Amino acid sequence: MLLAGQLALVWWFTLRPASPPWVHGTNLRPLHTIRTDLAAGGWEAVAGLGGGLLLLAPLGVLLPLLAGRLYVSTAGSLARTVFAAAMLSLAVELLRTTIPGQVGDVDALLLNTAGVAVAHLAVVPAVRAALRRRTRAGGTRRKHVRGALRLTLNA
Predict the structure, then answer these.
(1) Prediction pTM value
(2) Are 92 and 76 in contact (CB under 8 A)?
(3) Number of neighbours of residue 26 by Cβ within 10 angstroms
(4) Is the model more confident about 123 or about 41?
(5) Given a cut of 80, is residue 124 above it in pLDDT?
(6) pLDDT tier at 22, thresholds 50, 70, 90
(7) Rounded mean pLDDT of 79-100?
(8) Exposed/middle/buried for residue 71 (C-beta within 10 Å: 0-12, 13-18, 19+)
(9) What angle (nearest 5°) sits at the alpha carbon of residue 113, between those of residues 11 and 115?
(10) Which of 114, 104, 7 is nearest to 52 (CA)?
C-alpha cells in the first residue's frame, strides 16, 4: 500500500501536464542541470537538487523490505534496488517527454537514483539488523515461503 502511494505521488509530481510560458529543451548532457542549479546557489539549488534526490528516495526503503527477506547481502540488495529505481526513473523521464509542458532530463534520472541509493544505505541495513536481533531474541523462527522470508512465532 505504501509503495502504491509513493508511485501515485511520483505520478502526481512528475507526469501532470504543465502550461508554462516556455520550456527548456530536453537535457541529455549529464550533470548540466546539476551544475546550473549549483551555480544558481541558495534555495534554488536546495530545491532543485533536493527535489530530485527525495522524489524516489522512499523506494530505497520500500522495495527491499517488500519481500520481507532479512538474511540477504547488503550489496545485492542495494544493486537490485538501485537498478529497479533507475529503470523506474528512466520510464518516468521517457513518459515526461510525451506530456505537454514536461521535458526529460538525464540529471533527474541521476538524482533520483542517487536518492534511492542513499536512502537504502541509510535505513535498510540498520532495519534488517534490528529485525534480525528481534527474531533471535523474541522466539521467532524463520520459514521460507515461495522465496520470501516469513516470521512465525514459536508457541
Answers:
(1) 0.80
(2) no
(3) 13
(4) 123
(5) yes
(6) low
(7) 93
(8) exposed
(9) 90
(10) 114
Give every CB contact of residue 118 below 8 A, 6+ residues apart in sequence: 53, 57, 60
Surface-to-core class of residue 105, CB atoms within 10 Å of its CB (0-12 exposed, 13-18 middle, 19+ buried) = buried
The whole-number pLDDT of residue 139 equals: 59
Residues comprising the chain, all counted: 155
DSSP state of 142: E
For residues 72 and 57, what is the distance between their CA atoms, to the nearest angstrom?
A: 21
Q: How far is CA 62 from CA 49, 58, 74, 113, in A?
A: 22, 6, 15, 14
* Whether residue 154 has pLDDT greater than 50: no
Distance CA 56, CA 35 (A): 21
